[in-house]
Amino acid sequence: MHDFATASIPAPASLATNGGTRHILGFVYFTFVCYLSIGLPLAVLPPYVHYRMGYSAALAGLVISIQYIATLLSRPWAGRISDRAGAKVSVLWGMGACTTSGAFLVAAAAALHFSPPHVNLWLSLSLLIASRLVLGVGESLGSTGSTLWGITSAGSEHTAKVISYNGISTYGAMALGAPLGVVLDDHWGLVSLGLLTILIGAASLAVAFRKSPVHVPPGVHLPFSHVLGRVAPHGMGLALGGVGYSVLATFVTLFYVSRHWNGAALCLTAFGGGFILARLLFIKTIDRFGGFPMGMVCLSVESVGLLLLWQATSPWMAFGGAALAGLGFSLVFPALGVEAVKRVTENNRGTALGVYTAFSDVSFFLTGPLAGAVIGVFGYASVFLFALISVLTALGIVIVLYQLQARE
Question: How confident is the model at residue 393 (pLDDT cuts 50, 70, 90)?
Fold first, then answer.
């Protein structure tokens, strides 16, 4: 294994001192733009498609979920582009795709109002789907490229820090984008979301053009199947560890309604607060103690939070469980991600990051229907038991990986 350790590859001297927060934020900024573009229409499109256009709720949901399918399918491709052409190229393409998605959004709004009545609905829907597909590809290219660009520029010793700030950018942008999108739609309609997406995408494209590229490491590029084999155990741990967040975000409101409680949104606030707090305060612990030990601690804390949610007898007990779950889940991605990229050489890190992140996409995509089936049989509280079992399984995977690493 140590032949493929990223840590064994010294960072160039000119890059090794670039691990400052301001320097890293200059690269994860592009991830923020990707997820702000995603967040803006997130709460607007389902009611727009269902109520304004008159399509079914299922089709409205498909318009949202099809973006995640595009993201999942394009993750490995984005990683390959980052490895072979460079992280800057991947980011440029990603920002260009986000800008294009905004143009499709503007066209969809225009088609609904200005095209002939017999074609306006299907034309507008087709343009909305095109916008979501392009945005999904833009997410893969932009986020994978910006993460690799940050790691390569700051030095591999700052991998955990880059991944951590990347995650803060992701969740922060989504948290900002969703309510902002609703406000814009209420005042100026769907076209305003598209115009803002074009504006921030084009501006970010210009910023990326001005940044200096980092070197593309020479060497043999491993076949995709080889990278997948090395990263898959870490990705499985990430996917199972992320079930807690997925079920909380999807079903906490219905869980509160079933108990006749108020304040379901506070649970999501508590989770987000714990998540950001842990990333800001404890990110250095990954470098100090290692990815696997911190992964075990984090998954254990998340498990306690989900146990409290499952057994909650009051809203405050659920609130505390959500906060603990967020605190625990916060460092799972960077902790296992650090170990995942060690499994490949420097010139394959983009592909490894793309494959690793794809497991998170799979988790978010599959958890909803699986957890919904569990609720249909056992009730709303059982969804947190389902998440608890998933996280404990992830903990078992990390323990095994840590033991295997110790033997090598």
Answer: very high
Gap between the Cα atoms of 145 and 92, Å rounded: 9
Domain 1-213, what architecture? Up-down Bundle (1.20)
Residues 6+ apart with CB under 8 A from 290: 339
Domain borders along the chain are 1-213, 222-408
In the chain, the amino acid numbered 249 is: A
388, amino acid identity? L
**pTM attached to this predicted model:** 0.76
What's the chain's length in residues?
Answer: 408
Cα 291 to the center of its chain, rounded Å: 19
| Other C-beta atoms lying within 10 Å of the C-beta of residue 43 | 17
- Same topology between domain 1-213 and domain 222-408: yes
CA distances to 47, 55, 89, 176, 393 from 197, in Å: 20, 25, 20, 14, 39
The answer as to CATH 1.20.1250.20 being correct for domain 222-408 is: yes
Q: Token pair 């612990």 is at which residue?
A: 285
Nearest to 92, CA basis, from 42, 164, 30, 48: 30
Characterise 219 by phi-psi region: left (phi > 0), alpha (psi -120 to 50), beta (else).
Answer: left
CA dist., res. 47 & res. 30, Å (int): 29
Q: How far apart are CA 143 and CA 100, in angstroms?
A: 16
Per-residue pLDDT of 164-181, as tens digits, reads 888 788 878 887 888 898
- Which among 189, 144, 172 is positioned nearest to 279, based on CA atoms? 172
CA distance 264 to 268: 7
